[in-house]
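User: I'm preparing a small set of examples for a lab meeting where we compare how different chains pack in three dimensions. I only have the primary sequence for this one, and I'd like the structure in C-alpha cell form so I can line it up with the others. Please keep the answer compact; I'll paste it straight into my notes.
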Amino acid sequence: MNLKTLILTGGMIMLSAAIFAQGNIKYPKTLKGNVKDTYFGTVVADPYRWLENDTTKEVAEWVADENKVTESYLSAIPFRNSLKQRLTEVINYERIGAPFAKHGKYYFFKNDGLQNQSVFYVKETLHGEPSILLDPNTLSEDGTVALQGIYFSRNGKYLAYTISRSGSDWQEIFVMDLATKKLLKDHIVWAKFTGASWCGNGFYYSAYDKPEDGKEFSNVNENHKIYYHKIGDEQQQDKLFYTNTDYPQRFYTAEVPEDETVMFIFESGANTGNRLFMKDLRKTNAPIIEIASDDKYEYAPMEVIGDTVYFFTNYKAPKYCLMKASIDNPKIKNWTAFVPETENVLNSAGFTNGQMILTYQKDASIHAYVYSADGKLKHEIQLPTLGSAGFNFDKKEKDIFYTFTSFIFPSTIYKYDIINNKSEIFISPKVQFNPTDYVTEQVFYSSKDGTKIPMFLTYKKRIEINSSNPVLLYGYGGFNISLNPSFSAMRIPFLENGGIYAQVNLRGGGEYGEAWHLAGTKMQKQNVFDDFIAAAEYLIAHKYTNKQKIAIVGGSNGGLLVGACVNQRPDLFKVAIPEVGVMDMLRYQKFTIGYNWASDYGTSDDSKEMFDYLYKYSPIHNIKNDGVPYPAILITTADHDDRVVPAHSFKYAATLQAASTGTAPKLIRIDTKAGHGGGKPITKTIEEQADIYSFIMYNLGMKIK
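Assistant: Understood. Below is the C-alpha cell output for the 705-residue chain.
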C-alpha cells in the first residue's frame, strides 16, 4: 500500500513527533494513520497498520532508517568488536553429530567450526574415512540456504532432502542418487511443514498452492495438501492424494512406516493435539479411516512391527504413555496400555536390539531407561549429569549412539552398549574455554499463586553472591515446549565476565505434562508472566542480583513474554531483548500460520471475554506513555520471518519510540535474508549475538575483560 492509499483507507496521516528523541537518540519519524478496529464494542486504534505491508517502498525506507539508528548506537559500544572476536573464538570448534546407520553405511553431520551450515557425510564403516554427501554451503554464496531434513528411500538408492532459503518456512525438495551423488531432475517448490515419506517409487509430501507474488511471507497459508511424487516426474504431474476443504486452516501430513503396510495421516492446527487417520496399504482400495478424533490429545505412531502399531500419546495420560493396537482394529477404542503413564513426562521412545529405550523428563532434565520389548522397565542409563540426551538408533541396527549436553557440557557423543548397560565417549569436542570453571544449580521458587517453578542457574565458580551480579533471565512458557538444559557457546563471554545465566521452566511449557501446559494458555496466560516476574524477584531476594542488573530475553512466544513483562513490571528489569516476538495479540491470527496458535492464545474474535483478556496483556497495546522509565530494549526480527511476521516487531518498535518511557534506548535490529531463526548461518548468528550481548552487557554496566 502506498501513502496515497493509506490516506484513503486509514484516515489522516501525521508524524509521531517529527523526530522523536529519547536521551541522545533521534529515532526515525514514523507516520501514524487513523486506522481503528472495533472489538465487541471496544474501539482499538492501530496507527501503524501500514507497517504490516512489509514489501512496500515506504516500509523498506522505514526499515533502513531504523537499522541506521540501531547500528549507530551499537557501533559506539567500545567492546562490541572485541566481543564479536571472542564469540567467533568460542564457536570455532568442531561440532559433530551422532552417527546413524542406513543400508549398511554410516551418516553424520559435521561443522568444522565456522562453516555457515553443517555438512552431511557418509562412510562405509563406523571408523572408516568419511566423504561429503551433501554440503549446504555450496548452495548459496552467503550460507543462507539451509538443509532442513533428509529422507532415505526404502531401497537405499535415493535421498530426498528439504532446504529452506533465507530462513523462510517455505521448503524445496530435491532428490539425490546416492550411488553417483548426483541430483535427479525432481524438484518440489512451495512445500511447507513437511518431510518426504517414501512409498513405492516415490514419496508423499505436503504443500500449498503458489502464493500471490509479493505476499509469500505474510499472507495467510490455507488449504494444506498432501501430494504423491513419483521419481522422474515433474511437480505438475504429482497426484493430489489428500485435502480437506472443510478445514482450510489445518495442516495435513502423511507418514508411511518402513514396511509400507499402512499409511498414517495427521490433521493438526485446530487444538493442542491432532486427529489421526490410517489407510491399510495391504488391501487394494482400502479406505482412509479415522482412528483418533479428539484433537485435544496427541497421537503419534511410534513403530509398526508385524500386525501391531505402537502409539506415543497423552490420551487419558497427561504425562504421556505408550499404547498398542492391531492394524486390523486400529481405532482408539481398541488401543491397550503398553507402557503406562508414570510420575514423569515421557519424552521419547523407540525399539532397538530387541529392546526399547525410553527417555523421560524429571524436573526439566532428561533421564533414559532401557525397557524390554514387552514394555517392562529393566534399568536406567546413567547420564553424566543433569542435562539432555538424544538417542540415535534403529530397530534393525546394532549400534546405539546418544548426544548429551548441558549448560556447561558441550554436545558429546556416546556409544552405548545396551547388553552391558555401559556408555563410552565416542566423540568429545575441544572447546575454547574451560567447562570446569563453571557450575550449574537448580532452584525451585514460588510463583504469585504459590506454584513451585524450577530454574537452572549457571555461573562461574567462586563468584560472590552479593546482590550485584549481572543476570540474563531466559524463558519461553508456551505450546507444550520444554526448556531442557543445553549448551550455547554464545553465552560463554557473558559467563566469563561474571554473568549468571538463568533459564526458567515456566507454565505453558511441557516440563510437567499437559496440565502444566494448559495452566499457561488462553485465560491462564498471565500465569506465565507471573512465573517469569517471580523468577526475577527470587534472584533479587536471594542476593544473586538487583533490579539494575537483570536482562530478560525470549524469542517468538518468548518475545511476547518479554514484551508483556516489561509492560507489567518496567521497574524490575534493566534490559529487555524481545526476539521475533508475537507482539500484536489482537491480529496475530491474520498472518501466515498465526491461526495455529489459537489453541494456546485464543483470539480476539472468540468472545468478548477472550478479547478483553488478550487486550489486557498484548505488548503493543499496553506500552505505558506516562513517563514511567522502561528498560533498555533491543527488538530483533528479520525480513523473511514467515512464522512471526516482522510487522509485530515493526509496530511494537514504532509504538515504543513514540511513547514517553524514559531515556533508555528503544531500538530495533532488522536482519535481511533471515527468518525466524532456523537454519541461520554462523556468520549471521555471530553478528546478531555480538550485537545482542554488546547491548545487554553495556546497559548492565559490565566491565569486559
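A couple of notes for your slides: The two ends are 49 Å apart (CA to CA). Confidence is low (pLDDT under 50) at residues 1-22.

User: Perfect, thanks.
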